[in-house]
Amino acid sequence: MNKITGYTGLYGIVANPIKHSFSPMMHNTAFQYLGIDDVYLAFEVEENHFANFITSARILPIKGFNVSMPYKVKILSYLDELTPEAKLCQAVNTVKNDHGKLIGHISDGIGFIKACEEKHWDLDQQKIVVLGAGGAARAIVAALTKQAKDIIVYNRSHKDWVEQMNQQCHCSITLKSLQDMQSLKNDLKDAYLLIQTTNVGMEPHTDGCLIPDKSYLNKSLKVADIIYNPQETKLLTLAKEKGLEYMNGEGMILYQGAVSFEFWTGQKMPISEVKKSLKME
């Protein structure tokens, strides 16, 4: 067990709300297991105090911090440098304080890819359908462009980032309307992976599902829903009833945390120990 000393370093996560996060348990377990004299806290910060938080992060100094809703885009104007991944996404969920220079990174998409790798899903040159075009979708699509052949994003409204990213990547990225259910059904006929990135199906509205029924899911389709509360959304229930491989958002949360941890410390997160702490195995 670590003991707090005058030398103990500080990390954290800033968002609103954030008290529900299991990031503190994840990172503190890793610090303690590796004998690192650091702690990780949750900072629930109102929007009108966000600039003050950034000033505090530089002054204290906070060695690094995660960023969640609603600050993943807002923080861009406060940072000194962005990694290539963050530049592509134009969003940040991880910040490292390098002697007063704040460097922004995005680990959501890489975390999702690592969760897929743990399932032994081979995304190379595959057709992938993504539901939603918010911040999480943007990060996941950016990461997928290094492997996938075709990515079709379905969303209720137009998003400029899809076309912008399509111009910067070798992978084909297409935006289609979520209202066009026949097009969605046709795209899913030969898709390798379906990724649900919206909050549809999340607690407390667990009856929600963007896929009407099992007929939309082909017999070899893999299904990922980045929601982890509940652990099994209605979409994942449909996938299970169809006998498909599927996963919820726990793996993505775990591995994006591991990417952040390594970005800060240069050390690998002890995944097995963290899983035990989070009761994930």
UniProtKB/TrEMBL annotation:
Binding, NADP(+): G132, A133, G134, G135, A136, I226, G249
EC annotation from Swiss-Prot or TrEMBL? 1.1.1.25
GO MF terms listed in the record are: shikimate 3-dehydrogenase (NADP+) activity
Q: Where is the active site?
A: K72
Whether NADP counts among this entry's keywords is: yes
State the pathway, as annotated in the record.
Metabolic intermediate biosynthesis; chorismate biosynthesis; chorismate from D-erythrose 4-phosphate and phosphoenolpyruvate: step 4/7
Q: Which residues form the Shikimate dehydrogenase substrate binding N-terminal domain?
A: 13-95
Domain of life (superkingdom): Bacteria
Q: Which residues form the Quinate/shikimate 5-dehydrogenase/glutamyl-tRNA reductase domain?
A: 118-184
Q: Which residues form the SDH C-terminal domain?
A: 249-279
Q: Which reaction does it catalyse?
A: shikimate + NADP(+) = 3-dehydroshikimate + NADPH + H(+)
What family, per the record? Belongs to the shikimate dehydrogenase family.
> Do you know which PANTHER family this protein is assigned to?
BIFUNCTIONAL 3-DEHYDROQUINATE DEHYDRATASE_SHIKIMATE DEHYDROGENASE, CHLOROPLASTIC, SHIKIMATE DEHYDROGENASE
State the oligomer form and interacting partners.
Answer: Homodimer.
What is the protein named? Answer: Shikimate dehydrogenase (NADP(+))
The beginning of the lineage is:
Bacteria, Bacillati, Bacillota, Erysipelotrichia, Erysipelotrichales
**Gene name, please?**
aroE
